[in-house]
Glycosyltransferase (Acetobacter cerevisiae), 978 residues
Amino acid sequence: MTAYDKNKKLDWSVFDCVWYKEKYSDVLSFLQIETDEAVQEFYKNDGASLKHSPNPYFDEDWYLSKYPAVAEQISWGEFRSGFEHYCQKGFASHNPHWLFDEEFYLKRHPDISDVSLAEQGFRNGYDHYLNIGDFQYSSGSWFFDPNAYLKGGQATTTELGPYSQCVRATVPVAGYGHRLSWYFDPEWYLETYPEVRKELDAKEWTSALHHYLANKTPTLFNPNPYFSEEFYGSVNNDVSGAVESKHFRNFFEHFLKYGVHELRKPLSTVDLEGYFRNPAVQQEVSRGDYPDAFAHYIAHGGKVEDDAAFQKESEHVSKKIYHEMCRIRMPLLLNQELDFTYEYPDFTVIIIAHNHFAMTLSALASLRANYNGPMQVIVVDSGSTDGMRTIEQHVRGLEVIRFPGNIGFLLGCNAALEKVRGPFTLYLNNDLELMPGAMGNALARLRSEPQTGAVGAKLVRTNGMLQEAGSIVWRDGSVCGYLRDKRPDVPEANFVRSVDFCSGAFLLVRSDLLKKLGGFDTDYAPAYFEETDLCIRIHEAGFDVVYDPSIVVIHYEYGTSGFISGASMIARNQEIFRKKHGAYLRQKNLFHERLLVRARSSATRQKRILFIEDRLPYRFLGSGFTRSNDVIRSMIDLGYHVTVYPVYRPTEPMEEICSSFPDRAEVIWDRELPELEDFIKSRAGYYDLVWIARTHNADRLAPVLMQCADAISSRAVIIDTEAVAAPREHQKRVLRGEGDPEQSVEEMLTHEFRHLFMAEKIVAVNKKDAEILKENGFPNVGVLGHMQKALPHSPGWDARRDILFLGAMHDIDSPNVDSLAWFSSQVLPLLDGRLPDDIKFTVCGYINPKVDLKPLTKNPRVNLLGRVPDVGPVYDRHRIFVAPTRFAAGIPYKIHEAAAHGLPIVASSILCEQVGWTPGEDMLSVSTTDPQAFADAIVRLYEDKVLWESIREHELARVRDDHSHQKYLEQLKALLSF
C-alpha cells in the first residue's frame, strides 16, 4: 500500500460543516445560523459543550460516556471537548465511534503495524480503516459488516466505503431496524424493548444499534435472542468482577472478545461447544463463511441440516442431469478437435464403449484437460450403433478397435492389451470425469513406489456421495465398496492405504505386470469380479494395490453397461473367485459391519497405532507439536498404520490438514474428546497400541480408557511425556513470585505423574527427564528426542544479517511470550549503539490471536514476521538465533532446528543444560539474570566471524551425530517393540 495524499484523505480530525448543518439543522435553524463561518464558530463556542459531534467519524456524546475520565478532564478545563482530547492524545488508545473498535480492526489485520502506519502517514488504525480498509470492505467492529450494509440497499455512492456511508447518514438506517451484523438483531431488539422505539421516535438515538451500544445501562439489554446478560453473568463468575469494574462494558463484550472463542454458553439453551462439533459448522467457519461458531448458530437458528439423505435420494435426478450435460457439451467438444497424438506415451488408456457417444467425448475431454503429457488412448467400440462408429474422425490420435457386437468390458480390455505401449495402463470407464490432478497423482504413486502394482481412485457418484474408497474382499468371496453412501470428505476416506482391490472404473496398473498376468481372467466373462480377481493376482505376485484419495473421479456408475445385471452371474463368478483364491480368502475377515474398519486394508499384519494429542500436531505450532508430527511420520516410515486423534477438534481448513501429515496417516479431524470413547469402542481390538502425547492428556484420558478397557489391550498404552513440566512450573512461580514458593518440586511431580501408572511404557524427551521419572518410581522409561537433518549447504557469515527469535506463542503465560517480553525490554535496548540501527530483530512463529504482540512493533528494530509457510529461508538469512528462555521443560525443538540450518545460537543457560551441549563450544550460553551479558554475547557472536564459524561447525556436528533420521527410527522402533 502506498502513502495517501493528506489533502484528499478522509479525516476524523476536521470539522465537516456540510454534515454538521444537516445533522443539527433544528438547532441551527432556531438560532438562524446559516453561513459556514457562523456554523463553525457556533460549534467552537457552543456546539462542543452541547456534546455535538464535529464530523460523522467521531461521536462526542458516546465518547464522553465511554470514557468518563475524559469527561472529568473536560470539567477540570484540561480539554474543551472529547473531540479535542481524541485529536491530541486519545487517538492512540481510545475508540472514536460506537461503530468502530481499533483493537478489533488491528487484530484482524496483523500486517498493520505502527511502523507501516507511520510510513503511510496514518496516525492510527482508524486513519487506515477510513482510507483503505473501508474501501476493501473490511469490518471495523463486531457490529458492522460492510456486506450486510450493502445487502440492505443503503449504499448510494462508490466514492465512500460502506462504513463512511453508514455513519454519514443523518437519518435512521432503514427505519431503525436494518441489520448490520450477525451479532445484533434490531427487529428483535425493538420488539423486546418497546421503550427503545419511543426513544428512537423522539430522536434520542439514530438506530436500535446506536441505543444498544451507547445506552447508560448496558447490562440490562440483550443484543439478540441467543444471548442473555443475566445468564452469562451468573455462570461466569470470573467475568463478573471485570464487568463491574468497567473493564468490559457488558457481558456481551466479554463474550465477543473471549467467550465465543472459548465456546462458552451464551444462553442456557445454546450449547455452543456441542454445536461447534458439527463438521459442517467447523468447515464453514474455518473457510471464513462465518466469523465464528456463534455467528453460524445465529445464521442457522441453531440447526444444521444434513443433506446426505437428500443427496442419496436425488441420485436418479443427478444421473439424468449429467447425461443431459454430456449431450449439451458434445457440439463444443466436436469443434475443439481433441488431440491424443503421441510419440512416446507416459501411459496407455483403455476405454470400452457401447454407444454413449456424448458421454465418451466428455470422458476424453476430461482426460485431456487433466493431463497434458503424451498418452496412448485405445478405444474399444463394442458394437456401438451411434456416433461411436466414427469417433476417430472427431478425435485425433485415437486407436480404435471395433467389434460387431457388444463383447463387454473384460474381453474388450484384453483385446486392447496387445496394443499397449505405455509403461502404465489405465482402465477408464467412459461414464466419468477426472478431478484436478488425478492422473498426475496416480502416476506419481506408481513411479515413487516400486512395490505398488496398481492404484485406484476415490470414486464419487454424481449425487456427491461415495461409491467407494477402496474395496473389501470377505472370506466368503463377497465384496463391498468401503464407505459407500458416505461423504467424500470423511476422515476414513482420506488417507492412502493398501486395499484388496479398487474398481476398474479407474485402475492404473504397471503394464509389464499386467501383461505378465495376461490381463483379466476370461473365466469371469462377460462381467463381474474381473478387476477383483486381477487385483488379488497382483497381490499374489508380490505387489501392492493402493487406494489414493488424491485421485478423485466423479463416476456416473452403470452408465455404459450393455448387460443386464443379474444375481445369478454374480453368484457364478463369486464361486469361481472363491475357488481360485482360497489361500488369500482364508486370511480375510468374515463379513460383519463392525469389522469394516479392520477389513478396509489388505495389510493384515500391519500394526496399528492410535495417536492422541492435544490438537492435530501441525509443525507450525511448535511447543512439542513439531516433535509429535515427526513421531507420526516416523511411525509410518516404520510401516505402522497411524490414526491421529485430537483432544480438541481442529478449526483449520481442510487444505491445512491434508498438507500437514503423511498421506498414509488417518487424521480424525471431525471428532474430539467427548466422542473418543465411542470411537475406541467402535474399533474394539483394532489398535495394537495407544500413544498418548503429553502427560496432562493421561489425566484427561484416564476415565475414557477405563471405560474402554475391554476394547484396548492393557499392555498397549505408551505415554509420551513430551516434557516433565513440574520443574518449569516451579521456575516460573519463583521467577514471578506467584503461588506457594515453599511447595516442593517433588510434590508437583507427584501430582503431574499421578496417571502414568496406565502406561506399559513411558517416553521422555531427554535423559534428564528420564532420570526424574525413574526417581519417581517409573522404571519403564525410554528416551526419544528430536529428529533433524543437518543441511549440507547453507549461507555463510557474509550472506547473513539480523537476529532471529523463532517460536510459537500459544498464550500470554507461555515460556516463549515471557522470554520475548524479557528480551525486548531488557536486552534489545542494550544493543542500541553497539549494533547498527538497520540490524533487525525478527520474531517468527505462530501467534495465537489471544496474544497481543503489537507493543513490540513500537520498537523500530523489531520485525514481527509471524507464521510463515517455510522457516528455511528465514533461518538462512539471519546471522544469530536467540533463545532467551527463562523457564522451560524438555528440549526446545527450535534449538535443534536452528542448529540444523547452520545458525549459531545465543541461549539461556537453562536451555543449554537441557540439550546437554557444551557452553561456548556448541552455543553461547548466558544466564537470563544478566541482560548485559546476554547483549554482550550477541554482539560478540554477531561480529566475530571466527567464533561464529566455530560454533556453527560444532552445532552441525551435534545434529549429525545425535539427531539423524536413521537413529531416530531405531530409537522409536525399540520403544514400539513389546
Notes: Residues 1-7, 559-564 have pLDDT under 50 and may be disordered. The chain is about 40% helix and 10% strand. Residues 735 and 892 are 20 Å apart (CA to CA).
